[in-house]
What does this fold into?
Amino acid sequence: MKNEADLKLEIFEKVRALYELRTSETRFIPGRTRVNYAGRVFDEQEIIRLVGASLDFWLTAGPCAERFEADLATFIGVKHCLLTNSGSSANLLAIAALMSPELGKRRLKPGDEVITTACGFPTTVNPIIQNGLIPVFVDVDIGGYNIQANKIEEGLTSRTKAIFVPHTLGNPADIEQISELSRDHEVWFVEDNCDALGSKYDGGYTGSFGDLATCSFYPAHHITTGEGGAVLTDDSALRKIVLSMRDWGRSCWCKPGYDNTCRKRFDWQLGTLPRGYDHKYIYSHVGYNLKMTDLQAAIGIEQLKKLPFFIQKRKHNFEEFKKRLQKFHRYLLLPRATRKSDPSWFGFPLLVKTNAPFTRDEAVAYLESHNIATRMLFGGNLTRQPAYKDVPYRVVDSLLNTDLVMNNLFWIGVYPGINSEMIRYVSEKFSEFVC
It folds into this structure.
């Protein structure tokens, strides 16, 4: 009679066979096969790990989540990692944690200002607004498309309490200058690392420099768990606050399936609750439930093993496109990496110059008509989006470059699913269009 381990092995072999069957005849057909800007890259190992987790039927965060958190923290080089159900939720938790009364005089309060960029994805800015804070927008540089770090100081006032910036398309922001400003002016520094997992600045991974940092594991990102994200920090006090806010706002820090880690579960006196009220049901923050499931974390464990290869492939694809598209520099501004950085690029941004005989929209339409996926730099200038029509904010100087990006920039993919045939095809289509 077969035991449980033997039955699982049989199931895993069937999964492997099914994966091989589904992928045995995939090939690139120029003009017919879509060249995506991003997508899932995986093999049978992720599916086997997922099926294994489903057989254990631990549906909430469990052993796989605990391992994924530990593995990711080790990879980035931080002490603490807390998984979330999305990168957007991770951003929300990072800002909400800074509102905690447990931070004393350093806590953010409604009406305080947070310096950020209007050029990017809305869920960098949304948590600022959702927590009653005021976003202060600084323009971006052209070519690197990150916040102009040399202008941040112009935006600092007595109400400034944090700097929250993304590493745009995987290109690190000027971390040295931002870190120095945050220290000198005693404001929090939060990295939105959702598009930059695996990028390095001055030898260290992005996500390891800020007081808090965030990651996203959406299918378009460097690794995927479907939906998912993480908050990273070296600060144990911040880790405790993020954990509380992620897990309903509760005071208890026991892992799922464990009780009485504090060894005084029925001996707390907090708020105006009766002494001895069950610590598992004491709430120290107005929190959420933003946890990742063990099924998602199981996928993340295997994806993280592939991350070094993914990083290498993204860099290779980026350099290939840069080499092939350099000849169009008269009309297209090619991207440049930040000083001291080694990006794991999320995409290959191209700015159509004002002297070009074609527009960004014409270039995009041509590429899309030939099955080459393109994307804008997310929301462009977010202050021009209808969602922010009545939102209070402040602008430092102007957002002229942000507007230029909104009107003239698009990007193509460099993700590991793009092979040499695809790069050659995309390059040929650029030649046909530009020439």
In short: The domain at 30-249+285-435 is CATH 3.40.640.10 (Aspartate Aminotransferase; domain 2). The chain has a mean pLDDT of 96. DSSP finds twelve helices and 14 strands in the chain. The chain has two domains: 30-249+285-435, 250-283.
